[in-house]
Fold this protein.
Amino acid sequence: DKSEGRILEGLRCTLLFGFNHDNKKASISFRLRVPEGKYRILDLSSQTEVNWSYDNGLRIERELEPQEVCVLKIEQV
């Protein structure tokens, strides 16, 4: 696959790294197994909040440019 996600878990937050290894734009969907609740997700490069949904896990959808990497900070609030 030409896209992947990696997780780094901390005490107060989780970092989600999304990689698009392709030379074309990619739509990527991530699902994290976390308890149902309220979350704040921040894109660390743009400093903007990211929309999410909960469907049997935290679901995040992103559009990544060719060779782009996104880093999302996920906190339960």
Remarks:
- The chain has no helices and eight strands.
- The beta strands are 3-9, 14-20, 26-32, 39-43, 48-49, 53-54, 58-64, 69-76.
- The longest strand covers residues 69-76.
- The two ends are 33 Å apart (CA to CA).
